[in-house]
Amino acid sequence: MVNYIWVFMTIVGFVFAMFNGTLEEVNKAIFDGAKEAVTLCIGLISILVFWLGMMRIAEESGLLNKLSMLFRPIVNRIFPDVPSNHPAMGYILSNMIANMFGLGNAATPLGIKAMEELKQLNGGKNSASRSMVTFLAINTASITIIPTTVIAIRMNYNSASPTEIVVPTLIATIISMLGAVMIDRYFYNRRRRKG
Amino acid sequence: MEFLSLISLGFIPVLIGFILLYGTIKQVPTYESFVEGGKEGIKIAFSIIPFLVGMLVAITVFRASGALEALMNWIRPAMEAIGVPAEIVPLILIRPISGTAALGMTSDLIAVYGPDSFIGRLASVLQGSTDTTFYVLTVYFGAVGIKKMGDALKVGLLADVVGIIAAIIVVVFVFGSN
What we know:
Chain A is mainly α. Chain A has helices spanning 2-20, 23-60, 63-70, 72-78, 87-100, 104-121, 130-140, 148-156, 166-194.
């Protein structure tokens, strides 16, 4: 499906540009897009190195394990295929916690690490396992306690109460998180029925 | 307010301090572990480059050609018909595709309509409560070499729809619609 969407966006863009007289912009966009992607990755290096370094300490000291014990009952229900003492659990949880505090930067390395563990759990196959789809779903609808960036923007534009959106955001993300889990379950059951 | 921003500011230093102290108490060779873990970060950053280049080129082309705007104009009446304010439609459509573009639109909406207006609040909640599904998908699956994504994209996008609907309802409910 990603293959189709990818080709669709590119081809439709080209065809549209021909009729719309935006070929010049599109030519520029090809190289701008590529450059932006590389810049983004280079920018990620510092964050990835720092947080993965920190998390290694947390892992070796057993802190990550403690964390997964704490939330075991809830997360076990969401990820029935992951053994509760598996390192994947610790990374999934730290990723969720980083997301909760609006630390997108810290969340990415942890999420990648969690995926890596889930892949190993799935025998190293290059197709997404059930747990991976679930993890992705709750990640795109991650619970946010403190939307740091948004608060900063609101302060910037002299809001009378920059943080008044904190509770509504929390409620909205809890709803979307529940929605994500249910949608994920629905598709999983459908896959299973199809065999 | 003061309290909340103190939490946000203090959270990272406290977290790092705690990890370091806990590691020291448990006699982990902290610095060496940090370096070992960090090395992995470099590998991951380089391995996602091709995935992001491919995705971002397609998205940028789609946007620069004007196709995205046309698509938005085409969808807009349907969205308005179900009660989504017109001003917010571009943000909703761009949110799963591009995080930076969405952040730009959110600041723009807040700047134009004011942070304490209905549109400003709705944009704030939307920005905070949904994530860039395409980016998460590309980066997470790209970094570990998942080629067959299964239902992941479908599930992610449907979850976004739920999030958007939830955001609109909650904002109307909490602040009223003006």
